[in-house]
Every structure is written in structure tokens, then in C-alpha cells.
């Protein structure tokens, strides 16, 4: 009888110890799970931050015509190729127009000469058809539809939105987007013979 009790006691004790050990394993597993979850959460948080950073890099520019009306908006984003410029406009003269980034973030109507020359941090020549060209601020011509609207996308691959870089659009004093009356011939110096400036928007 006594021996049986001892055996029973030992058996129960063994079972209790066994279950405690199992609990510990569970706890470890739990801890590991927690750690894993935490990593997952940190990763997600980092991803969210990156998304916000990307979003913060979206720059909006309003272009005004010579009578100070907003005739176009440009959305600038940085990608691997450079700065992507999405342009959407209306009330513009139909046909091809020179489109450039100019060197000063100042658009004083009516002639917008305050925007200065083309943005040219590399001291290059104007135009992709010229050896020694183009200016960092040279962009492809835009083509306005018969109804005066335009919706286009160009890449400025020699500039960046990153502040502090030598070719940044956010240099001291800023830069400007300019639409000209005529098309850029991509070779005449210093600005492609594109005629007067009909719209201007400050990037700053
Ligand atoms: Cu220009």
C-alpha cells in the first residue's frame, strides 16, 4: 500500500515536472514568436516610413501665364532615371513649345526674365543635338492639343530633388519650370530659339 502511494507520488511528480518543462518550451516558443512579431512590426513601420518619405518627395509646381493665371501644374517625383515631371495644362496655345528648368526660382510676370537662363550646373551647352550639350535643365518640347490642353510626362535625368546635391532643383534660390512660345530646336545657343516665356512656375 505504502509502496503504491510512493509510486503514485513519483508518477504525479514526474507528470507535473514534464508539464512544467513543456510549459517552458511553450514560453520559449512564445518569446520567439514575440520576437518575430516585433521584427515584423518594425519592418512594417520602416516600410511605412519609407512610403511617407517617398510621398514627401512629391513636389507640386503651379505655372502661371503672363496674366498671372494658373495654366498648368507639374508634379515632380524622383526615380532611378532622375526627376519625373508630370505636366497637366490648359488655356495654352496649341502646338509645340520649349519646356525647360530655369536657374532661379522666381517668376515675375509678364516676361519671367527673373527665372534667369537654363539651369546649367555642369556648364554645358544648350541642346541635345549639340556636342557638349545638353543643359541639365533642358527638357523635350511639349505639344499642346488644339483645345489648349496638354498632359505629358518627361524625365529630367541630370537633376535631383535631393537638397544639397550639386544638381539639385532645390539649390539656394530655387529653380523654375518655363514654357516658351515656340519650340526648342535643341541646338541654338543659348536657349534653343524658343521665343518668349509664356508660363512659369517656381520650384522651391
Ligand atoms: Cu526656357
Spatial order of strands in the largest sheet: 5-8-9-1-2-3-7
Number of helices: 1
Give the helix/strand class: alpha+beta
Listed once per kind, the bound small molecules are:
copper (II) ion
Please explain how this structure is put together:
Mean pLDDT is 84; it is low at 12-20, 22-33 and 48-53. The strands form two sheets. Strands 5-8-9-1-2-3-7 form a seven-stranded antiparallel β-sheet, with no helix packed on it. A two-stranded antiparallel ribbon has the order 4-6. The protein starts with a helix and ends with a strand. 27% of the residues lie in helices and 27% in strands. Strand 2 (70-79) and strand 3 form a beta hairpin. The chain has one helix at 2-56, and strands at 59-65, 70-79, 82-89, 95-97, 99-102, 142-144, 150-156, 175-180, 197-203. The protein is an alpha+beta fold and 204 residues long. The site of copper (II) ion has 8 residues, from strand 5 and strand 8.
Précis, in short:
This protein is of the alpha+beta class and 204 residues long.
Using brief descriptors, characterize the structure shown.
204 residues, alpha+beta, two-stranded antiparallel sheet, 1 helix, 9 strands, globular, binds copper (II) ion
Amino acid at each position: 500500500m505504502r509502496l503504491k502511494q510512493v509510486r503514485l507520488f513519483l508518477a504525479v511528480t514526474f507528470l507535473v515536472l514534464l508539464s512544467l518543462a513543456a510549459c517552458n518550451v511553450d514560453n520559449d516558443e512564445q518569446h520567439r514568436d514575440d520576437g518575430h512579431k516585433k521584427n515584423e512590426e518594425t519592418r512594417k513601420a520602416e516600410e511605412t516610413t519609407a512610403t511617407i518619405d517617398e510621398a514627401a518627395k512629391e513636389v507640386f509646381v503651379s505655372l502661371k501665364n503672363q496674366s498671372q493665371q494658373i495654366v498648368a501644374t507639374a508634379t515632380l517625383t524622383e526615380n532611378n532615371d532622375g526627376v519625373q515631371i508630370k505636366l497637366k495644362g490648359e488655356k495654352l496655345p496649341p502646338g509645340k513649345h520649349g519646356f525647360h528648368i530655369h536657374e532661379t526660382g522666381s517668376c515675375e510676370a509678364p516676361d519671367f526674365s527673373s527665372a534667369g537662363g537654363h539651369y546649367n550646373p555642369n556648364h554645358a551647352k544648350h541642346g541635345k543635338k549639340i556636342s557638349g550639350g545638353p543643359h541639365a535643365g533642358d527638357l523635350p518640347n511639349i505639344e499642346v492639343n488644339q483645345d489648349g490642353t496638354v498632359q505629358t510626362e518627361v524625365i529630367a535625368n541630370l537633376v535631383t530633388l535631393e537638397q544639397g546635391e550639386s544638381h539639385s532643383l532645390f539649390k539656394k534660390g530655387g529653380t523654375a519650370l518655363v514654357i516658351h512660345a515656340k519650340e526648342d530646336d535643341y541646338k541654338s545657343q543659348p536657349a534653343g530659339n524658343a521665343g518668349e516665356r509664356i508660363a512659369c512656375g517656381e520650384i522651391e
